[in-house]
Amino acid sequence: GGHFGGFGGFGGSSRGRSQRVNKGQNLRVKVKLNLAEVAKGAEKKIKVKKYVSCSSCGGSGAKDGSFSSCSTCHGTGQVTRVSNTFLGQMQTTTVCPNCGGEGKIIVNKCPSCYGEGIVQGEEVITINIPAGVAEGMQLSVGGKGNAARRGGVNGDLIVLIEEEEHKELIRDDNDLIYNLYLNFPDIALGTTVEIPTIDGKVKVKIDSGTQPEKILRLRGKGLPDINGYGKGD
Questions:
Q1: Cα separation of 136 and 162, whole Å?
Q2: Using an 8 Å Cβ cutoff, are 205 and 192 in contact?
Q3: How far apart are CA 157 and CA 126, in angstroms?
Q4: Phi, psi values for residue 84, rounded to 5°
Q5: 182: how many CB neighbours lie within 10 A of its CB?
Q6: What is the mean pLDDT of the segment spanning 149-172?
Q7: Which pLDDT value is given to residue 18?
Q8: For the residues 115-125, what does the mean pLDDT come to?
């Protein structure tokens, strides 16, 4: 029998205190990649404007770090109301309206951030983009979004991939298509041509009597699969 352990302390020691933790808003950016960057993966440095933790008060929102316990909820962040209904007395617990569920009140608000704990700022963020991404994909970078009010959890950075079209190669999932135009004598007699790939030009032999619309496949010369399942052609 599979025995699950480690769940003994669920809420046992918290005595019903569940102060709200503020979450910063997610931030969205667009990143443009060319085909070579899609093939190899890329490191992109971008500067983003966003909310950052206030340096004057260390993100607490309090001028000198002084808080008092909220008198409405006695520091629990929750208020319980008892109302009489036809089913008898009903107890409802809601977020304390006085402190917004934080359980504490700032004594003196920080003048730099007006007690919010965050200010408008900017940050240079390095994004490591894996090989094989495609137009419209979204990547998430944890904790690099907006800072949260009064020392909560940062939001995430959502990266939307935009792909620049290649002037010669057409992308079809992980395969790359190149349209080769040949004159009739070359098709009839056969020839050797240079084909563009992501890694540079490749010489390809065209046999005599090759029919138009014929597809020649160069194995593994396409794009890597984002999940690591080999390469396209």
A1: 6
A2: yes
A3: 11
A4: -90, 125
A5: 13
A6: 93
A7: 58
A8: 94
